[in-house]
From TrEMBL:
Organism placement in taxonomy: Bacteria, Pseudomonadati, Bacteroidota, Flavobacteriia, Flavobacteriales
Subcellular location: Membrane
Ranges for domain GtrA/DPMS transmembrane: 18-131
Transmembrane segments: 6-27, 39-57
Name of the featured protein: GtrA family protein
Topology with respect to the bilayer: Multi-pass membrane protein
Key words of the record: Membrane, Transmembrane, Transmembrane helix
Length: 143
């Protein structure tokens, strides 16, 4: 059963992902086309910038605790960093695979890869691992 709060959180997370994704994708195009970097390296750089934007929006808007209690940022940054490493790796290899195996332009391959990585990897890990409030924290909040 989906609650109103769960749907709102999902939609807000999609806004965060979209804004980070636009920065990521746009920078990838600029680095690849204007600076002639290989797209796999461009994805590494642009993915890092997009991740910083995404993390900031998620931490301070999407998964912000309404009572003001905040999970320590160091723990979230470490977990988020691991998710980003996995995400960037999947995006780079997925885009490269689609280009080499099917001759799909890297820009289109990246969009296809992003859809799978965003919904099947990033969102579940960000929601249920990076910004998850454990039961001990929930008790503190309810008091």
């Amino acid at each position: 059963m989906f609650t109103k709060k769960a749907i709102l959180t999902f939609l807000k997370a999609q806004v965060a992902a979209f804004l980070g994704g636009i920065a990521d994708y746009g920078l990838m195009i600029v680095l690849t086309e204007a600076f002639k970097l290989h797209f796999a390296f461009s994805i590494l750089v642009s993915g890092t910038v997009g991740a910083i934007i995404n993390f900031s929006i998620n931490r301070f808007w999407v998964f912000k605790n309404q009572s003001g209690y905040s999970i320590p940022i160091n723990s979230q940054l470490l977990k988020f960093g691991l998710v980003v490493l996995g995400s960037i790796s999947l995006k780079s290899f997925g885009t490269l695979f689609l280009q080499n195996a099917f001759q799909i332009d890297y820009r289109i391959g990246r969009v296809i890869t992003d859809l799978f990585v965003s919904y099947g990897f990033n969102y579940p890990l960000i929601k249920y691992w990076v910004f998850r409030i454990n039961e001990k924290q929930s008790v503190i909040e309810s008091n």
